[in-house]
Specification:
Helix content is 38%, strand content 17%. The radius of gyration is 22 Å and the shape is globular. The strands form two sheets. It has a six-stranded parallel β-sheet, with helices on both faces. Strands 7-8-12-9-10-11 form a six-stranded mixed β-sheet, with helices on both faces. By secondary structure, it is α/β, with parallel strands linked by helices. Helix 3 links the parallel strand 1 and strand 2.
Amino acid sequence: MTLDPRQLLNDMFSAAVSAADPAVLIPRFLPDRPKGRTIVVGAGKGSAAMARAFETAWVAAGHGHLEGLVVTRYGHGVPCDHIEIVEASHPVPDAAGRAAAARMLTTMSGLTSDDLVVALISGGGSALLALPAEGISFEDKQEINRRLLKSGADISEMNCVRKHLSAIKGGRLAAAAAPARVATILISDVPGDDPGVIASGPTIPDATTFADARAILARYGINEPDAVIRHLSFAVDETPKPGDPRFAANSVSMIATPQRSLEAAAEIARAAGITPMILSDCIEGEARDVARVMAGLAFQVVAHGQPLPRPCVLISGGETTVTVRGKGRGGRNVEFLLALAVALKGLGHVHAVAGDTDGVDGIEEIAGAFIAPDTLQRARQRGLDPAAMLDNNDGHSFFEALGDQLVTGPTLTNVNDFRAILIL
């Protein structure tokens, strides 16, 4: 049977997403039933699906009543019987997210050591739990998010700043719940799987400081809004740190990671007779720079059969960044692919996919796209200038015009970006 390169790449992406399905994973990680109340909170693009999976498993196990509030991205909600689901804006926060965060923090007051708080956290939760610290307006929070998103800062840097502008992130949510036990269940979307970085760690003690946040803004030349700069300079009310006794009885379970999803995709390739190589699950850097390096690897495989012979597929994850200088729509996966196509110069035998496993690349409801050896040729036949569109950060328009977009809709999970370069 003739191999269909795009179908294989699509199947690999689907396998990566399925490996992070909350409905399959969460029943394996139920905490012990408490003597008192069970309160479920959560935030992230996968948090509503996590809530439904947790609720279903908890009731099936006969663990009794539960209640709660979870906030997710618009379009990513799923119905629950006992847990309230609120939808809000991502990546720039809105009033719905702020109101949900304030209510969530309020539910943590008055709990006892007999109570259990279950925190369901996935990527995207940072923007969805936008509750500004005292002295910072909501408009300030929105503006600093916009500036960070365009700066090229990586996710760890952005979340460090967010923690120190928040009344709920950086462990503050769990601190407010003390002395209740907090069981955090996580789906990682960050390089290194650091629990404190995922959604800015609302239930995880924070090792970063106000000084770290100030240094990040200075590094990217961000000196506004004034209220944000003043707040970071005054450095009042530091986040709770590792070793804080309020966290002593808490637990953390990482149920899905980028690496596990890459391994699931590798199995699909292997079954099709293609040798997979997982390069890394934590690649960072400018998307177009990463693309040039990946193109170099593809040339090496085609010319010299190194680091492995054809047919093979080079698989990677992580979260690249895009410093938006043009007037395009951004999107790190389409920027990566457009830069890869330009660097490959129509090299034969090379196909690729890149997509965000949550189904949303940047602010577009598009997961990513595909390229093939004829991508540049087809683009020029349609009057497109690939290099100019790359300079304009307009990958989404490029792949839309070619009909090469990867469209999944909300996947209800999030283990960061998935890239695969298939060399036949």
